[in-house]
Amino acid sequence: MPEAELPEVAAVARDLIRFDTTNHGGGRAAGEREAAEYVGAYLERLGLAPEYYEPIPRRTNVMARVPGRDRDKPALVLHGHLDVVPPIAEDWSVDPFAGVVRDGMLWGRGAVDMKDMDAMILTSVAEILRAGEAPERDLILAFFADEENGGVEGSALVVQDRPEWFAGATEAISEVGGYSLTIGDRRTYLLQVGEKALVWIRLVARGRAAHGSSLHADNAVTALAEAVAALGRTAWPVTLTDTTREMTERLADLLGQSSADPDAVAAATGAPSGFLRSTLRTTTNPTGLVAGYKHNVIPDRAEALIDVRVLPGTEQAALADIRRIVGAGVEVEIVHQDIGLEVPFSGDLVDAMVAALGVHDPDAPVIPYLMGGGTDNKALATLGIAGYGFAPLRLPADLDFTGMFHGVDERVPIDALVFGQRVLSDLLRTY
Ligand SMILES: [Zn+2]
After folding, report:
1. pTM of this prediction?
2. What is the pLDDT of residue 366?
3. Which of 13, 80, 171, 270 lies at 20 to 30 Å from 155 by C-alpha?
């Protein structure tokens, strides 16, 4: 497809991909300033008045409010992040920041997470305003920095320092939900209504330093290794929440299976099974080890990093289990913790999202799910805003979409972007 013929939603997503907004985490980032200015200029051309907030140099957030027809209704937040995780360019088939169009798809870092949705938000609002219309209710369009680092230099600072941006808002829509998966032979949409909580812990084992040739029972590395292996191999039991219970029942229906074994149901979904099974239980993945400094010295200390993800509200119970599993000799330190979220799969907004999908893909089931990771919805929740993952994309059955988040050769079909923009603009006109 020649670039001149690209639908606007794809052209905007391509332009955003071409800004290298790599976020290495821990405050090391290329910065979102140019991408935020591009978004701001687009909003200005729609007659809106964007506001910027750059609490840390180059970590730029931008927002605009779109007046709705019914000012009595609570405002709806549409938000996206402008940063991306680092690509290993040698592993890619294309330059990750070139915004290449090939085989009917837009390729590049952020094509899936989440410059696609950023472009869908912008162009769906543009479609409404250019037609001389208004959305049903006030919209707050917010584009954040630093989401890929937990939002500590982005949404966390925005909600703390600019809460007035979100005045009157009760609900929010953003990423990682609303896209289709093929379950059995049915195209099915997953709507995200919850996010697991993150608890990053450090295990610390202490022993006695000694010569590497000694007979020595008090070895910190041995003690740590035992604790790491025990935790890494723990088969956490399946625990259902309202969301995952309904997800399991609906998936079982589609697959023609019993819902009695939720893990078996999730496992039968094929490509997304790893992603779905992680949402049924706690996960405790060891991700880092630090110990020792010389081959013939037994160190007195050894440390491991564990990425713990738990279902909303189960943090304390999981930590108690973890302490029991690693044993009294190994300390458990909490390095960073955030909150879990879960909102009902019901209500006017859920009905409106399901209906908007139904207009453009009739009879396709829409199923709630709870995601294993986190989004800027967690920051907005501190302002009492209920967040959903709804970035609608109708995808081909053979595209492993969930595998492309933070993956190699991120790409999104152009026609899926056009679909998503239409679904969103319908939703915004009517909800
Ligand atoms: Zn994302």
Report:
1. 0.92
2. 96
3. 13
